Amino acid sequence: MQIRGSIVALVTPMHDDGEVDWASLDALVEWHIAEGTNALVAVGTTGESATLDFDEHLDVVKRVVKQTRGRVPVIAGTGANSTSEAIELTRAAQAAKADACLVVTPYYNKPPQEGLYRHYKALAEATGAPILLYNVPGRTGCDLLPETVARLAPIPNIIGLKEAVGSLERRQALLGLGLRKDFLLLSGDDETAREAILAGFAGDISVTANVAPGLMSRMCAAALAGDAALAAQLDAQLLPLHQKLFVEPNPIPVKWALHAMGRIPGGLRLPLVPLSSAQQPVVREALRASGVLA
């Protein structure tokens, strides 16, 4: 299935006691498909992968795959800071019929570039799964550099990269690598996604799409079609969300926003805590400014 356009980094809805709210998860999947979201990421960073145990992680992936029923691609987050654990998670996601796996760089242990190369090479060879590399140094403490991406790109089942470094310099470096034509470059930074897509990226794995799926889908479609004016107009409406959904660590603000919209309960798991009272008016105003709330 084709992976491009607006790809939501889906939250994992939870009740106040921290248990997964399966009915709300099903409803979110249906809403996203109806609103034009092009693919779903289950249990990425925004899905609280760090606080779900192994069985819960796979249960969420299975549930999203089941509810989606093949209508759009489902990408499972299967990253870990242990190569063996990432292999185990990826194999389990394959068995759950995920269409691809999003594998974040190993966090905390800060491997060098050679370690990153060997990690992803071992994962690709051990599983054969379609793998999207995921670089988000602000969360992991290590940066998958463009030259290492170039070394990994020839591996056939490494199908692309989610790049959360939103700088112009990083975007130009990746686009200048001369990667194979079917290698997907995906933005992981909502605020710069429009420019990235207009420059040649295939889409955006988005936090903002959680609360404004229709607008994000239309913006990404306009950018993919080369309609810079329409993409800019839609992105201007989305800008308050791109900025204010990160006033506290993700996914705290976006889960509060979805709760304020009546789409999920307010649950998170420690060490995450609910959005502070000081930031709630900020996020609510961003929802209003973008037309998500009246």
TrEMBL record:
GO terms for cellular component: cytosol. The active site is at Y134, K162. CDD domains: DHDPS. The record marks A50, N81, E85 as: L-lysine inhibitor binding. Its EC number is 4.3.3.7. Pyruvate binds at T46, I205. The keyword Glycosyltransferase does not apply. The keyword Nuclease does not apply. It catalyses: L-aspartate 4-semialdehyde + pyruvate = (2S,4S)-4-hydroxy-2,3,4,5-tetrahydrodipicolinate + H2O + H(+). Pathway: Amino-acid biosynthesis; L-lysine biosynthesis via DAP pathway; (S)-tetrahydrodipicolinate from L-aspartate: step 3/4. The record marks T45, Y107, Y108 as: Part of a proton relay during catalysis. GO terms for molecular function: 4-hydroxy-tetrahydrodipicolinate synthase activity. Keywords: Amino-acid biosynthesis, Cytoplasm, Diaminopimelate biosynthesis, Lyase, Lysine biosynthesis, Schiff base. It holds the Pfam family DHDPS. Homotetramer; dimer of dimers. Catalyzes the condensation of (S)-aspartate-beta-semialdehyde [(S)-ASA] and pyruvate to 4-hydroxy-tetrahydrodipicolinate (HTPA). This is 4-hydroxy-tetrahydrodipicolinate synthase. It comes from Stagnimonas aquatica. The lineage of its organism: Bacteria, Pseudomonadati, Pseudomonadota, Gammaproteobacteria, Nevskiales. The gene is dapA.
